[in-house]
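Re: zinc ion structure - here you go.
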Amino acid sequence: MLYISVPLGKLVRRVSRLRGGGSALPGLVVEKIDPGFMQRTLATLPHGVAVVSGTNGKTTTTKMVVELLESQGLKVFTNRTGSNFTRGVAASLLGEVDWRGRLTADVAVLELDEAHAVHFVNQVAPRYSLLLNVLRDQLDRFGEIDKTAQLLQQIAAKTTGTVVLNREDPRVARIADTLSGQDVQYFGLDESLLSTFPNDDDMRAAPGSPAPAALPQKPPADVVLRKVGPDTADFEYDGVTVTTTMKLRGVYNIFNAAAALVLARSICGGGAATADHSTLLTALSQVAPAFGRGESLTVDGQPLDLVLVKNPSGFRLGLKSFPAGGYATMIAINDNYADGRDMSWLWDVEFDSLRHSGVDQLTGSRAYDMALRLQYDDVRVGSVQPDITPALSAFIREAKDKPKRIFCTYTAMLAIRRELSKITTVEVVS
Amino acid sequence: MSPDTQNPQDKQGQQDTQGSKGTIRVVQLYPRDMNIYGDWGNALVLKQRISWHGYSPELLEYNVGDDFPTDVDVILGGGGQDSGQLIIQDDLQQRAGVLTELAEDGAPMLLICGLYQLFGKFFKTRSGPVIPGIGVLDVETHGTNERLIGNVKVATAEFGDVLGYENHSGQTTLGSGVRPLGTVAKGTGNNSRDGHEGARYKNIVASYLHGSLLPKNPAIADFLIRTAAERKFGAFVAGSPDDRYAVLAREHAARRPR
Ligand SMILES: [Zn+2]
């Protein structure tokens, strides 16, 4: 039975690929006939399993950790398909194991959605976990922020080795108090950058609202992000500050680079002792954003940035990271299931930074909700067209000679990429 | 050029420079602990519309332990997580007197979700403990295992269709001392049984709808402002806010799935 499941699963995978199907079916088949498959396979990895979770930035951070580890010569298994589910992990494994079920990798780095991560860690205890943040994200799914923090706490509790925590997010940092036995490492921010990273307690956004309760005493962090330049970043570790160029854009991505460094240093066995820092930094400087996360395309010889915004903190960080000056701006807001149906989050974002240059084009199924939001922040709105196809062509036509930026929700981003590939030559730059 | 391409702000910006018809003070209750799902939007809409109607808005916050402001014209209360409700419950009991007095005196109030529940008689949580309310509203709430989530459309006699988004697991039952805000046309509302949403009492509008509620329901915002002006100045002289985007946002929202 044991070794039948893998060939059978791989066969189903091959057939469902041929038919253009997704990854769920082969995963389901293996799960049904061999429930121990995932656990058994992952248990063979010499460096174990690392889990990356949190509300914002999982995909790009996971990608960074993988590339950092690969720079150290490790063979890494990861769930590249973006499947956030246990079944997706099982399906990805099927693609990687040989016909006898052996996985030739040193370590697994898995991006796990908060809700499903708990189900996963109950089956496979990770050796490492990296917990990024707890922010307002699709509350219609999880119900409450405190519950999300509890889910992350359960991941930490199941971790057998090192737990890496965001020192600047009180809900994440406080998880350390609940742990015993695990090694806890932090990634942190320079004081001067704190104001550019609202945590959830800042989110209520009323002007003059009180600062959030930070931890009474900040623990020392393994890696601290000290400074962010236009295309450089300063990280401090082992008592030294190093400057590196960065391909990644957006301060929040670069903060997550500090998180990725901590995890990579831990996995490579106690930081400086074994990790080669010059190759780590070179790898970090080469990391490109994950699909749709701050991608830069070229349209009519001008840059067109796609900035994925899926929750208020992400939108606020996006507005801060990508200043509006000199750019034509479009905002595309859909409310399909994958975007979240609840539009209340738009009211937790301040749009003052767009007041000076205005917004040229609004689109998406909730384009008028967005227009209304901007009206109440006194931001000038060009045109509103819920249908993405004509809105995008108008935007590109009317801002022909300007760099362009589009803030978009997930399904709007998919539609925009599809349209871009039709109406103009889309060259993927990074 | 379609009508969408003109800017409502162009006209409204000028109104600020004209002489004010008087100051209207809006107090947000417990914004630090009871503020979720865009409750700030309701405060922002009142602030802007008060000035678009030609009055001067003053936005105040009342948090646990603060001195309660005087000369309150409008009260805004938002939603919160269970932890927020626990943090404010003692302070709220201490303010029961002044809040009841204001309510009975006809001060306009908008109470969303968590504070809707706590302005009622009690909230019996799912795990057993009962959080006492301040009893301004004749309603009671029982925690359940079922979370009611999704777009909502409510038919009301006073404000037309009310559009918003609900997300709550507490179910509220109305007593005879209040009337419902309206009848649910899409969504669930107060509870999964009687098809009513929200509560109306004196000049209080209470509702489970986030959304935020006021941007897409300017009729409710203007009711609160009008009532405040009449109570304070004896009369309300309306301005003419541009509600073109609100009308279109309502039309589109009404067509979205649950
Ligand atoms: Zn609520």
